[in-house]
# Entry
Amino acid sequence: MKTTPLQQIKTEHLNRLADYVQGLYKAPQLRHLFLELTLACNEHCFHCGSNAAHAAPDELTLPEYRRILREVKEDFDISRIMLCITGGEPLLRQDFFEIMGEAHRLGYHWGMTSNATLIDRDTAHRLADCGMRTISVSIDGLPETHDALRGRKGGYDLAMRGVQNLIDENVFSAVQITTVINHKNIEELDALFAVMDGIDVDSWRVINLEPIGRALSRPELMLTPDDYRRLFAFIREKRTAGYPVEYGCSHYLGLDYEREVRPWYFLCNAGVYTGSIMANGDIGACLDIERRPETIQGNVRNERFSTVWKNRFELFRQDPAALSETCRACAHRRFCRGDGWHSRNFDTMEPMVCFKDVLFT
# Structure
């Protein structure tokens, strides 16, 4: 098949990345450490990958977080690490500002994912005072759609109030909105763009519904091939026009769309750049990965995080494509590497999302 000059350049870049990844499997570099502060949440999103609802009875305590933060600082160069704070809704922890104040005092860079419903002016100011740099806020549709998808009447208005309070603070490096697109709310893409274009957020991250967590019970809302093509064409069009709209990190998109809908090439960071500490202290890779014995690498109540990071994660530090019969025979396996770990069926080791024959052949 004849390729365009741009596709030839992308192929060269992807070959370099593929060679680099082989070295990364042998010498991983922790760049993002996710802390799942709680499974408590004041919304009930149908697509929640963590099935968050109520605080778990065995969640890590404030003294444990203080110890973990000190240990990670002792064992890593934290100037190269971003703490990514998530939940549930992190702000539901009564000791949230004590935990993050400690992280700030120790010199960590940190950002957060939040539904923003609890961010009044005072909270926005306190987030600035304790060193938060970035935040991603979930807006999943126009008001009625957002509230229905997230299980909370009035949630849209509260979230948008929170976004404006963050913008008004005028100190954060990035205030981002993230939208999860499904088969129904894709019809609101243009209307949502008009909303985002009217407020001073730094970027709009548009991602697809994934077959994980609660979303597995709503197969009718998964995107169709036509939906995917529409979504990526929309993002590319807006980026070409200069708008800060981008897709997430989730999947390999083929030569037509790689570097067109996000500013980087596909690389699943799980276990090579990204590690996570779950609310109960379990250690894993990406928090969106199914939680089962082979994906849990240890627990910070029993071992230092650095020991587990350096000596475990074997599952994630190999070519995932080699584990899949389908992927082993695929001409794209060098660039795709079996796609993202978060959307893998661990019983069959086959990817649950693949854009071959959807975006490329």
